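Model the whole thing, not chain by chain.
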Amino acid sequence: MRQVLVLGLEGAGKSSVLHYISSEAAKDRTAPTQGFNSVQVSAEGFQIDLLELGGSQNLRFYWNQYLSQAHVLVFVVDSADEPGLPAARQELHWLLAEDPRLPLVVLANKQDKRDALSVAELHRELALHTLNGQRDFFLLPTSATHAALATAISIRRVRSLLVELLSQL
Ligand SMILES: Nc1nc2c(ncn2[C@@H]2O[C@H](COP(=O)(O)OP(=O)(O)OP(=O)(O)O)[C@@H](O)[C@H]2O)c(=O)[nH]1
Ligand SMILES: [Mg+2]
């Protein structure tokens, strides 16, 4: 079992992304995650356990306790929530400081929204240029609720990236 830890501020779209990855279908409605939400997908030769921890302020306190079991960190960002980006950046960099090698996949989610920032803008706003060279790092645009081909493709790309990263372990 390989574990993927899925974090990000409340409402970023973690549950929606996990639902799509495991069921290959968009879901238009999710409830805020109380505690955690776990989803399994099978890859060739191994199982992937994706563990989402809720993003509300009181739950963020527990995030770092789960880092040591994780093989990959997925950090989901609401690309259209510009005011929330400083908090997302701060939480992300706190997590990264705890483990300088943990592979990181940042999802620039909600790309279907008209006011979504681009991947390049998010790279800057999240100060991702400051990452050290020790870790594998990827930044991918996603959309998890929009029923369009681009959504299906973006989620499939996340899934195959995770399989690729985890199969190297
Ligand atoms: N337009 C759009 N809405 C999205 C997308 N992903 C998620 N949402 C919506 O954003 C809201 C929050 O999504 P969730 O998946 O519950 O977010 P979360 O990160 O799991 O939130 P917590 O569990 O509270 O930490 C829901 O209303 C989703 O339908 C997306 O790609 N595009
Ligand atoms: Mg959730």
